[in-house]
Amino acid sequence: MATKFEIKTDKAPSMDQTKFPFSQAISYNGMIYCSGNIGIAPGTTTTIEGTVTDRTVQALKNLTAILEAGGSKLENVVKVNVFITTMNDFAAMNEGYLQFFKHPLPARTCVAVKELPLGTDVEIECIAHL
């Protein structure tokens, strides 16, 4: 039977689990399931200033660090879910997103939601193989 284990790194934000009860990622059966990441720099608890592109870039830097801590890499991502607070930010989010992903691009869903944690405007989660 495959073992499930937590992936944790200080190279990505780690929130107080009493307020935010989730792991940065879980590895199971050759796959890594990353929790949603927002534009928070490691060691801080507030979103970075700037544009949705800037926060997209920071969220993807965080995901990169988490994947590497779990023995994977961004090139191994097979599925991405992106949450933005308005579809007006779709192009700006893509501008940051395409700095990290090359062809073949992973499967992706992007939806607009009413609100995201800490008042941010973009959150990204992903699934990758080892």
UniProtKB/TrEMBL annotation:
GO terms for cellular component: cytosol; mitochondrion. SUPFAM superfamilies: YjgF-like. One of its GO terms (molecular function) is deaminase activity. Coiled coil: none annotated. Belongs to the RutC family. This is YjgF-like protein. It comes from Venturia inaequalis (Apple scab fungus).
